[in-house]
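#structure-requests
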Amino acid sequence: SLMRWLMLMPTLGLMWGSCAGLSLSAVEYHFTIGDVQQYLVETKQEVAWDSAGDHLAFTSSVATLQAWKCIAIDGSTATVEVTILRVIAKHQGPGSDHRFDSSLRMSTDPAVSDPLLGHLKALDGVTLTLRIDQLTGATRVSGGSVIADAIAKRAPNLMDPTAPSPMAAQAQQLYGDAN
C-alpha cells in the first residue's frame, strides 16, 4: 500500500491515502499521453506535549521532487509513471536534529547515512506506476516493493543473518504493492 500512497500530490488530494481504492470526491483529471510535469510535494508534522514539567515539541518534514508522466489512457483510466527525483527530510526537537538529502550521494555524508532518516534513500529514483480513474480519482499504485526491499536490505537481521530483516514485514506492509 505504498506508505499509504507516499504523499504524492497534494494538488491531486492524494496525501497519505490508501492506494487500494483511494477515492476523491468531486474531482476530475485530464491527463494527456506523453505529458511530463514536475511537482515538489511537502509534508510537515508538528507535535508537542508536556511531560514531567517540560514542554517538548518536535517537527518532522519530508519533501519529494517528482516527475509525473502519463504513459497510457484506457477509457477513464490514466496510467501515470511517477519518478521520485529527490528526497529531503528533517526531524528537529529537543536533543534531536536529523537531516536527510538524497542528492548527497556520499554514503559517509551524515545527511545520507542518518540513522533516523537514512532509510528514505530507498525512495530516491524509484518509479511508481499509478492507475488513476480520471472521473473519480480512485488510484492504485504499484512499484513500491522496490522501496520495501531496499529498506529491508538496509536493516539486516544481525542476530541471524539467514533470517529475514526485522524491517521486512513492516516495510512490505507500508510500501509493498497492493494485492
